[in-house]
């Protein structure tokens, strides 16, 4: 690198005086080249985004105003698809399922993740292995998770019913009764999500300077007070991040449910994304499915902006 | 005084021990599903459906794995998944590094707007545009084609964001010096930027591998021919077709996890780094 610096010094030398024509030309070429460079560097990504994200979003809106089964020609019907959504009870059920699923999984996964992070932030024997075990489900595919869960919760031969039977309970119709199917799904989702929450909270905990605790201890703060007035406020950014990601995740959950319950029994575990998929690829209603996609997009958008605003306001106050 | 200290030390140790025991119990519950998949896969097949199957298999029938591979085209699924994953990793990592570098280290007209566009791509989940995306892939003639699965997700907004955050800290003087030295922009990128970015490249490689290997929804709509199925699609197919052959399903499920388990074992810290750095999965 020293050589580079030396050359740099040399080059800078003559530039102080009158630059030669060759120098000026080289400089101009270089400036022109470096102006083009960043655009070339971002071009592949931007091209892919345009073709596979931004164009499809516009296209979705275009299709959502039409009736189209893929094999016939699209017919413009205005906002009819959106009007139809309002009176589609299955759409509303899939929305309410999504809401119930979200309320059941997000706060719980945050709470368990936080408790685990607090415990595993201590100096404990075998801490690394314990962390790995709680984190492991994060890397397992949703399809594999769904297959394993379907076997564990199997009504007839599942190990959960077998274990329950030994203490005189059950058998419970985990996957064939609407209420228990949603419950099984929530339990499985928690299994997947808590390791993720734990890792985010652990990183946040490790970034808290010990001096805060020293000061709190000097003031005679109890351990609950230390948590309440030091740890919890300092974890707020992590909590907000996990809240946003958790809710967005539950708006998008697909693989796990598609493979584990198929949205059933009936429509008891059909979430919004699954309903979109069915409308498009089972019912061949491209326009109607696109309209639902647009509604989902607007919901995610509103939710994210809302969270950002609230987060900013809380930070302003704090 | 001494008695008081030792009593608080004792209660401290008691607390640590009980927390530890709770954690071990929790870890046992968390690990049980994975263990049970293994136990179901290796136990004698007639034992699977007897309600009294013990927690530990009566014998370990390794032949079950060979039988499972012999009955379903698992090897062809694996080959498809590997082809898709390897190409996707190479492409995604290369273009995301270039893009993140440009956003971090160049000033150019429209930079902030374009970066905002990248961030907004984060807010357009694939599920929202599943219908038009299917139509685009179909129009491009990429249905049942590897590229139909690789290209739509090659640009990864999270990746660009992560790379940009990392590269902002590369000193400008280093790049300027090389520029004055007459090095081409590509040479600067490969000789200076890439070697300095090894940690973020490792994170990016591992996450892209996981995303593509575990991907399901996109292959589900793109891969219409069975011979193009990926491991995840194959596993889903088994769940539908051999609904009662749990021994075989669990064997294939376990095999489908092997690449991720190997990567997880050796590179776990990169997962943790990636997630705690930007909160993504």
Could you characterize what this model shows?
The complex is a heterodimer of chains A (318) and B (281). Helix content of chain A is 76%, strand content 1%. By secondary structure, chain A is mainly alpha-helical. Residues 1-17 of chain A have low confidence and may be disordered. Chain B is an all-alpha fold. Chain B has 14 helices and no strands. Chain B has two domains: 2-61; 72-278, MetI-like (MetI-like fold, Orthogonal Bundle), CATH 1.10.3720. In chain B, α4 (74-105) crosses α13 (231-241), α11 (198-214) runs antiparallel to α14 (246-278) and α13 (231-241) runs antiparallel to α14 (246-278). Classes of the chains: A mainly alpha (318), B mainly alpha (281). The interface between A and B is large, with 97 and 94 residues.
CA radius of gyration of chain A: 28 Å
Q: Mean pLDDT of chain B, nearest integer? A: 87
CATH architecture of the largest domain in chain B: Orthogonal Bundle
Percent strand of chain B equals: under 5%
CATH architecture of chain A: Orthogonal Bundle
Mean residue pLDDT of chain A = 85
CATH topology of the largest domain in chain B: MetI-like fold
Number of helices of chain B: 14
Number of domains of chain B: 2
Measured by DSSP, the beta-strand proportion of chain A falls in under 5%
What name does the CATH topology of chain A carry? Answer: MetI-like fold
Major sheet strand order of chain A: 1-2
Portion in helices of chain A: over 70%
Q: What's the level 1 CATH class of the largest domain in chain B?
A: Mainly Alpha
């Amino acid at each position: 690198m020293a050589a580079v610096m030396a050359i740099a010094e040399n080059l800078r030398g003559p530039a102080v005086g009158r630059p030669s024509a060759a120098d000026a030309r080289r400089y101009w070429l270089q400036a022109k080249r470096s102006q083009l460079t960043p655009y070339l560097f971002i071009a592949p990504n931007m091209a892919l985004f345009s073709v596979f994200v931004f164009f499809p979003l516009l296209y979705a809106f275009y299709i959502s105003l039409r009736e189209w089964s893929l094999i016939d020609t699209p017919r413009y019907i205005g906002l009819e698809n959106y009007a139809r959504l309002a009176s589609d009870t299955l759409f509303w059920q899939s929305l309410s399922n999504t809401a119930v699923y979200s309320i059941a999984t997000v706060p719980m996964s945050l709470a368990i993740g936080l408790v685990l992070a607090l415990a595993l932030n201590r100096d404990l024997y075998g801490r690394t292995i314990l962390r790995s075990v709680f984190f492991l489900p994060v890397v397992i595919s949703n399809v594999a998770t769904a297959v394993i869960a379907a076997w564990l919760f199997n009504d007839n031969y599942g190990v959960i019913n077998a274990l329950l039977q030994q203490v005189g309970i059950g058998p419970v119709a985990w996957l064939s009764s609407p209420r228990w199917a949603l419950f099984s799904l929530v339990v499985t989702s928690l299994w997947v999500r808590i390791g993720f929450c734990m890792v985010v909270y652990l990183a946040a905990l490790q970034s808290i300077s010990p001096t805060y605790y020293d000061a709190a201890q000097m003031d005679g703060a109890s351990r609950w007070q230390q948590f309440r007035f030091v740890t919890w406020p300092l974890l707020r950014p992590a909590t907000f991040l996990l809240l946003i990601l958790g809710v967005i995740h539950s708006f998008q959950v697909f693989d796990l449910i598609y493979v584990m319950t198929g949205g059933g029994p009936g429509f008891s575990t059909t979430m919004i994304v699954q309903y979109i998929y069915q409308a498009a690829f089972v019912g061949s209603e491209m326009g109607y499915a696109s309209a639902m996609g647009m509604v989902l997009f607007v919901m995610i958008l509103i939710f994210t902006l809302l969270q950002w605003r609230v987060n900013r306001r809380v930070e302003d106050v704090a | 005084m001494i008695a008081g200290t030792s009593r608080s030390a004792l209660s401290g140790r008691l607390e640590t021990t009980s927390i530890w025991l709770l954690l071990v119990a929790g870890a046992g519950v968390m690990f049980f599903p994975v263990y049970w998949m293994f136990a179901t896969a290796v136990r004698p097949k007639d034992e699977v459906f007897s309600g009294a199957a013990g927690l530990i298999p009566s014998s370990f029938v390794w032949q079950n794995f060979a039988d499972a591979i012999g009955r379903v085209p698992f090897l062809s699924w694996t080959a498809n998944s590997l082809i898709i994953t390897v190409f996707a990793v190479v492409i995604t990592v290369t273009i995301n590094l270039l893009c993140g570098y440009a956003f971090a280290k160049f000033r150019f007209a429209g930079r902030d707007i374009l970066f905002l566009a990248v961030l907004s791509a984060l807010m357009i989940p694939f599920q929202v545009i599943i219908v038009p995306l299917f139509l685009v892939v179909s129009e491009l003639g990429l249905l049942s084609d590897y590229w139909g699965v690789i290209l739509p997700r090659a640009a990864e907004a999270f990746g660009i964001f992560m790379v940009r955050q990392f590269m902002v800290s590369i000193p400008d003087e280093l790049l300027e010096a090389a520029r004055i030295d007459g090095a081409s922009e590509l040479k600067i990128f490969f000789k200076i930027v890439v070697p300095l970015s090894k940690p973020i490249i490792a994170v990016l490689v591992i996450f892209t591998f996981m995303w593509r290997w575990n991907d399901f929804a996109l292959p589900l709509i793109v891969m219409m021919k069975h011979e193009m199925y990926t491991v995840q699609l194959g596993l889903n197919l088994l769940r539908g077709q051999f609904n009662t052959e749990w021994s075989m399903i669990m064997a294939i499920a376990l095999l489908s996890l092997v690449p991720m388990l190997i990567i997880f074992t050796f590179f776990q810290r990169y997962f943790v780094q990636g997630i705690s750095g930007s909160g993504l999965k």
